[in-house]
Amino acid sequence: MSDQTKPTRPLPGDRSQEADTERMVRVDHAGEFGAVRIYAGQRAVLGDNHPKAGLLRHMHEQEKAHLDRFNAIVNERRVRPTLLAPFWDIAGFALGAGTALMGEKAAMACTQAVEEVIDEHYEEQRQKLKGKDPELEEVIREFQAEEVEHKKIAEAHGAEEAIGYPVLSATIKAGCRAAIWLSKRV
């Protein structure tokens, strides 16, 4: 038997597929919750009469649908949600409101940065799943497409024109990656 055909044995400390899937559900649930709170913060500052109100409402409604689906998955699979939800509640709203206070382009930069990280995150999960959990894989594929749509909307509406865009974007991306790392574990 060559090295390529040998069955791989788990190493000490490796997680089971079930444990990996639980972490995926936990972090995705937390991420969708955070996204709902970001849009809530942006909409609270910009208001329903703002020229971008329709776009924000559209993206917010999609994120609410994502959260509803992950709420159901968490319950169906009996996955413990992240213990950091109270923090993500405040942090998400603050990020959305804070970027909206900086202007509509900064709000769009926030959306673009968050959705870029989430697109990468969902793609990584899909590659890990590859047929091991077709139901979850399909949910992730569908939501990933909508997150990419949000990113494109943000780009089309001036995300990269925000004052301090490179620093703002890099900071938000770093925060998202940290939130993903923490929510998988806590």
SSE arrangement:
Layout: H1 17-46, H2 53-77, H3 85-101, H4 104-129, H5 134-156, H6 165-185
Helix pairs in contact: 1-2, 1-3, 1-4, 1-6, 2-5, 3-4, 4-5, 4-6
Explain the overall architecture.
- The chain has 186 residues and is an all-alpha fold.
- It has a single domain, classed as Heme Oxygenase, Chain A.
- It contains six helices and no strands.
- Helix 1 packs parallel to helix 3, helix 3 runs antiparallel to helix 4 and helix 4 packs antiparallel against helix 5.
- It is elongated.
As a percent range, the share of strand residues is under 5%
What is the helix/strand order?
HHHHHH
In the CATH scheme, the class would be: Mainly Alpha
Helix and strand composition category: mainly alpha
Q: For the terminal residues, how far apart are their CA atoms?
A: 41 Å
Key terms:
mainly alpha, 76% helix, Heme Oxygenase, Chain A, 6 helices, 186 residues
Short description:
The protein is mainly alpha-helical and 186 residues long. 76% of the residues lie in helices and 0% in strands.
